[in-house]
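Appendix B, example 12.
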Amino acid sequence: MDANKIAQERYLRVLNDLADHGFWDFNRLLDLHYRNEAITRDRFPRFESCEGVQRFAVGVEADVVELGFSQGQLWLKSIRLNEREGEDRKGRGVGTELLETLCGLCDKHRIEMSLTASPKLGKGWGAEECKRLVGWYQRHGFVVDLDWEPNDSSYEDGIPMRRPVQRRELELSR
């Protein structure tokens, strides 16, 4: 079996494990909600395809995580916290908890994760905010792609990063 096919199978295992961690297929969740049907684990079919971007609603706040598969890797497209009017959830560990769950599942199923660390468009983020975001991802095992070279305008497009599979259990047993 070729490496891309193995990575696709691992990606599907991650997707199918997410519901056990409170990540609900966004489109299926909306469908059940609008049809006024019960939202239970058995109403969410298993993922069978790597096509397209998968959107997940997470927790009672309905935060959104978007994932895709490309070049043998899980691509983290976005983590968006649902911010209600007058409520700032930044700094409360919500994004960290979501990212740690994804990282743990990627490690479990041995698939690398990639992303583009980019500022919130229209929020006045600049190079310093982008650097802080990169630092946050680095604390979770991500590294900046070696091909990326910083310049003043490159922060607007985001910084490509990847997270190799962490083999903590192997290191601990040595």
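Residues 170-174 have pLDDT under 50 and may be disordered. The chain is about 35% helix and 20% strand.
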